Amino acid sequence: MVKGAVRYEPGPAFQESGEQGKLEIPASGSTEFWLIQWPLNHVNASDFNGQEVSLNKHHDDGNLGNLESSSGKSYELVSFAAQQPDATVFIPSGSEMKAVHAY
């Protein structure tokens, strides 16, 4: 453990789920597992059971891909990191300064 680190302990209301894991991810060098967060109560998660999505990880505009639910609704998957940089750094470049956004 890292010096000064505190171990996380869930609150008293936490209840461990007795459900078995629902994902079977094959162990291959080309498979990645992504956790995608979406607005609560705006999307029915069961519409996406069994769906596989190909994501464009090399994007400039933040658009990772598109997804259509089993009910026919289309969703655009976007990267929050592409929308707001973590930091802006100014570096000298010849006679001018350049702003570089770090993600």
Major sheet size, sense and barrel closure:
2 strands, antiparallel
Described by its quaternary structure, the protein is single chain
Strand order in the sheet with the most strands: 1-2
Shape category: extended
pLDDT < 50 runs, ≥5 residues: none
Terminal-residue CA separation: 27 Å
What is the helix content?
A: under 10%
If you compute it from the alpha carbons, what radius of gyration comes out, rounded to the nearest whole angstrom? 20 Å
Structural class: mainly beta
Q: Quick one: how many beta strands?
A: 4
Please write the string of helix (H) and strand (E) elements. EEHEE
Percent of sequence in beta strands: 15-25%
Region (Disordered): 1-21
InterPro entries: MED2_plant
List keywords for this structure.
103 residues, 4 strands, extended
Describe this structure in words.
With 103 residues, this protein is mostly beta strands. The chain has a domain at 45-102. It is 4% helix and 24% strand. It has one helix and four strands; from the N terminus they run ββαββ. The protein has one helix at 80-83, and strands at residues 63-68, 74-78, 87-93, 96-102. The strands form two sheets. Strands 1-2 form a two-stranded antiparallel ribbon. Strand 3 (87-93) and strand 4 (96-102) form a beta hairpin. It is extended and about 55 Å long. It starts with 62 loop residues before the first strand and ends with a strand. The model has no long low-confidence stretch (mean pLDDT 71). Residues 1-21 are annotated as: Disordered.
